[in-house]
Amino acid sequence: MKKYIALSLFLFAAVSCQNFLDIKPHEEVIPSTAEEFSALLHTYLDNMDNGSQDYPIPSTSGVTYYDQIADNLEVALSSSRSILSSYPGEMYGGTGSKSTTIYSNFYSLIRDCNIIFGEMTDRESDMARDVLGTAYALRGISYYELLRRFCPPVDPVRDDQPGLQLVATFDMEARPLRSSMQETIEFIEDDLLKALSYNVQTPVYRFTAPVVKGYLARFYFWTHQWEKAIEWADEVMAEYPLLDREGYRAMMTPSYTPKGNMIVKSEILSSSSTDESAGQYSPLNERPLSIRFLNTFTDKEKADDIRYEMGVSRRRLATKFIFSGMRSAEMLLIRAESHYHLGHKQEALDDINNLRSRRIKDYTPLTMETLPEPLLDGYISVDANGNELTPLIAMILTERRKELLLEGDRFFELKRNGCPEFWVPIKSTGQKYVTYSFMYTYPIPEKDVEILPGLQQNEGYEKYLTR
Q: What single string gives the DSSP state of each residue in 48-97?
């Protein structure tokens, strides 16, 4: 333990991608044992447990950001004193912007994982294997989260989409340009599969084998590898089966302790002796849920769906327990949509009926003939392949929207399904702000683009960003 102080040398927060490698020990004690190297990871894991950072999994307040800038909340009715964000453009530009901070934080975590891979000589002890497995998981997850934010939506028929700056070793001299999308996808897949090969089961490392399986399902889903997404979603659901209405009620009652079929959860520790503040973010009381979201529930569902009962107040405020992490219901939704894209329509409908039967009292299963037509006032009008919505895919997307409200999903659903443009009015200023299609992909930090010749900026930001 006495050597842990030397680890502070490695933990400086990078202010841009260009200095995430510029950290090297000079006349300091370098960690040598697996226990000492594990401190690099536990810094991040402890902060996640305390909800003091928004990576690799966001805090309670951080996860709501992706609903704030999407279409589940009514920006026009926000209080004039609201501290909530209104549209994605508010977080872009400048060294202190949210997008730049996200970029730097994830690359800082990648850097520390690379230190472990390059410097830790122990590869065989149980602790070393836990450390290596967790480091591969965290590096793969970091690149996956950067892919979702800083790369365009994956289009499997294109071979010209830009990927990420891939850094696989701790090297002060490396200044990589962006890889291709396919190279990035292969890198992430390799990291997650390596993580799984270590079969981490020690709970203190958080990103255990079941969690890695869940991220594999997410990753293959995001990259349109539908068969593999189904395979890993099945693996997770075998260990964490779906809960019924009362199981859902117990799981989603505020608590810091993971419950039910929560596979991983951030913010599991509190300085309070009670759970009263768990899963709450009071500024959300300044912004009602949107009519477009409320209209996804029929009158019967508003009376009988436990998600409406626990999630919506009479004043249209969100009362749902804010969850940041991974639950098995997401795996079922991944499986349902993947079946749909593979043409397995009945399997997809069966999954949706399974979910709805566990949320809606006295539920009557839907058939292909009784599926409702897609809502005309929804912003999503095409699916992930750019095809017009059918009643079945519209139902799958609607159920995902209901189930994962305030769980950090909606912004990425809009991005996955057409990047729809829409505008919101700001009550306090009388102005309107437009979410343009290019804004679903965050800009590469401006400083990095200026310093590194040839580093490709994302489309749309040439005139938008100003220093």
A: HHHT---SSS--HHHHHHHHHTTTSB-GGG--TT--S--SGGGG-SSTTS
Q: What is the pLDDT of residues 354-378, one digit of tens each?
A: 999 999 999 999 999 999 999 877 8
Looking up tokens 């200044």 gives 175
Q: E strands, 96-253, where? A: none
Residue 456 · residue 181 · CB < 8 Å = no
- For residue 452 the two structure tokens come to 């590194």
- Residue 17 scores a pLDDT above 70: no
- The Cα 182–Cα 223 span in angstroms is 10
Nearest to 329 by CA among 257, 402, 378: 402
Other beta carbons within 10 angstroms of residue 295's beta carbon come to: 13
- List strand residue ranges (DSSP E) for 289-444, in order: 325-327, 422-426, 431-435
Q: Which residues pair with 305 in a beta bridge?
A: 360
pTM of this prediction?
A: 0.93
* Amino acid code (one letter) for 87: Y
8 Å CB contact between 345 and 87 = no
The upper half-sphere exposure of residue 184, i.e. CA atoms within 13 Å in the direction of its Cβ, equals: 29
Q: List CB contacts of 124: < 8 A, sequence separation 6 or more.
A: none
86 neighbors 78 (Cβ within 8 angstroms): yes
432: β partners = 425
C-alpha to C-alpha distance for 49 and 389, rounded to whole angstroms: 39
One-letter amino acid identity for 356? R
pLDDT digits (tens, 9 = 90+) for 226-268: 999 999 999 999 999 999 999 999 999 999 999 999 999 999 9
**Residue 232 contacts residue 216 (beta carbons within 8 Å):** yes
CB 456 within 8 A of CB 162: yes
Farthest CA pair distance, the chain = 73
- What pLDDT does residue 317 have? 96
C-alpha dihedral, 435 to 437 to 442 to 444, nearest 10°: -130
Q: How far is CA 417 from CA 152, 181, 297, 393, 431, in A?
A: 12, 18, 21, 11, 27
- Compute how many other C-beta atoms are within 10 angstroms of the C-beta atom of residue 2: 7
150-170 pLDDT per residue, tens: 999 999 999 999 999 999 998
For residue 386, report the phi and psi dihedrals to the nearest 5 degrees: 80, 10
Helix (H) or strand (E) holding 147: helix 126-150
